[in-house]
């Protein structure tokens, strides 16, 4: 016999689709079907059933060979590593629950660690820009029900957020957008002809790295001032047409991704995009929103904000929180050799950090808490397998629009496999014993 669990949240991307239905066996041991999810979201659920899944911690010996170890030994190694390090790095946190993040931050505070999340290599520049100039934003529900002018700048939701356009931004029929995509105009700014660009009413094929200039030109066009013949490879007529299209809408929303945040000018690009949004508000209603990748990277910034006052790159080594991206960022610390241990949970720096940083992880005492085999687990000294958050354990996550959503448990983890939260609680208790903290 089987049962279907409804209203399941997908723990893949920042869209956090909450309309999935999952068919499971009566005892919850097997996921049989996943309905309504995109291909990637479906694979996230089904991958938890992999027959070659690691279920016991693995530790490297001095010769670099992997051996099974007990969970008690894994907790002891992790606690000793963090407690005895002068300045450990605790990185990741974007693919786990807010509850686990909070416990991890408590460990970081006790150990004088640097705690950082994946925003440091994606939307950290966005957070810096928001601190500079503020942000006029909204929820995805407002986008669905009200927005009739959509910009996708430096992002490709057709591949990275597969249900974003069908659930919220382009195709759905909302309360005030009853004609769906027929009543919306879509502008894509991207140097490549992506699948998202192929659906656009206007594709502005910008020259690589010249987002700041084009954003400035759009601000000029919105204000009705004269433009040069071309800006960033885009003819004046197309820029003016895009500005007029935006001004004629009832509600404009700018979605932007790493094509803007990690290109030349970094946070200044986002400063200019936010100011463009403010300029548009002189003519119509406008909002702006980052396309966050990991399903709970937004939540990680929120939890760090509650506990320390800053959203990423937080240095606790002096006994209080210091925030100085570029100095207290993970890659900078690793490349300068300023940390002496690395703890990774809920991310994969081995796949996304520069080689020089990954080599430091290889050289240092390191722990990776991760359900999968990944490039990071390969370079770490200890790999601790845990349950899949949002599949085998519930927990809170924040959608890309900063709306908190509770993820549901739909299946049982393999016997003996702990959750992130359970493992971190054991490590916290042991660190307190080592540090002599009540």
Automatic annotation (TrEMBL):
GO-annotated molecular function: formylmethanofuran dehydrogenase activity; NADH dehydrogenase activity
Keywords from the UniProt entry: Oxidoreductase
Domain of life assignment: Archaea
GO biological process: methanogenesis; respiratory electron transport chain
Keyword Transmembrane: no
Gene3D superfamilies: 3.40.50.740, Dimethylsulfoxide Reductase, domain 2 (3.40.228.10)
GO cellular component: membrane
InterPro entries the record matches: Formylmethanofuran_DH_bsu, Mopterin_OxRdtase, Prok_molybdopt-oxidoreductase
Any matching Pfam family: Molybdopterin
Domain named Molybdopterin oxidoreductase: residues: 53-349
SUPFAM superfamilies (UniProt xref): Formate dehydrogenase/DMSO reductase, domains 1-3 (SSF53706)
NCBIfam families for this protein: one_C_dehyd_B
Protein name: Formylmethanofuran dehydrogenase subunit B
């Amino acid at each position: 016999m089987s049962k279907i669990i409804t209203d399941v949240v997908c723990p893949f991307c920042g869209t956090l689709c909450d309309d999935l239905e999952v068919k499971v066996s009566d005892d919850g041991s097997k996921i049989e079907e996943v309905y309504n999810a995109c291909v990637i979201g479906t694979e996230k659920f089904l991958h938890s059933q992999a027959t070659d899944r690691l279920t016991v911690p693995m530790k490297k010996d001095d010769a670099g060979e992997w051996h099974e170890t007990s969970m008690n030994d894994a907790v002891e190694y992790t606690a000793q590593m963090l407690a005895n390090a002068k300045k450990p790095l605790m990185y990741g946190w974007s693919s786990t629950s807010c509850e686990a993040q909070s416990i991890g931050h408590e460990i970081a505070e006790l150990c004088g660690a640097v705690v950082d999340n994946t925003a440091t290599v994606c939307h950290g520049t966005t957070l810096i820009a928001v601190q500079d100039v503020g942000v006029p934003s909204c929820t995805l529900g407002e986008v669905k029900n009200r927005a009739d002018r959509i910009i996708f700048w430096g992002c490709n939701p057709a591949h990275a957020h597969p249900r974003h356009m069908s659930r919220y931004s382009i195709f759905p029929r909302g309360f005030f957008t009853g004609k769906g995509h027929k009543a919306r105009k879509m502008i894509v700014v991207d140097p490549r002809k992506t699948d998202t660009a192929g659906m656009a009413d206007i594709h502005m094929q910008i020259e690589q790295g010249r987002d700041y200039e084009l954003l400035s030109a759009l601000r000029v066009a919105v204000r009705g001032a004269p433009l040069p013949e071309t800006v960033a490879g885009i003819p004046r007529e197309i820029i003016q047409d895009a500005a007029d299209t935006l001004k004629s809408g009832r509600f404009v929303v700018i979605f932007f991704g790493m094509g803007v945040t990690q290109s030349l000018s970094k946070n200044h690009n986002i400063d200019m995009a936010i100011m463009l949004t403010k300029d548009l508000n002189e003519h119509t209603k406008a909002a702006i929103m980052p396309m966050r990748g990991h399903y709970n990277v937004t939540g990680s910034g929120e939890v760090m904000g509650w506990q320390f006052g800053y959203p990423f790159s937080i240095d606790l080594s002096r006994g209080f929180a210091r925030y100085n991206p570029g100095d207290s960022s993970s890659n900078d610390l690793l490349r300068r050799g300023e940390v002496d241990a690395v703890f990774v949970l809920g991310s994969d720096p081995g796949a996304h950090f520069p080689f020089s940083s990954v080599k430091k992880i290889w050289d240092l005492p390191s722990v990776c808490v991760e359900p999968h085999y990944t490039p990071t687990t390969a370079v770490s000294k200890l790999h601790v397998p845990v349950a899949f958050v949002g599949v085998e354990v519930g927990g809170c996550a924040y959608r890309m629009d900063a709306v908190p959503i509770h993820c549901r448990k739909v299946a049982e983890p393999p016997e003996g496999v702990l959750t992130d939260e359970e493992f971190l609680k054991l490590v916290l208790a042991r660190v307190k014993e080592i540090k002599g903290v009540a």
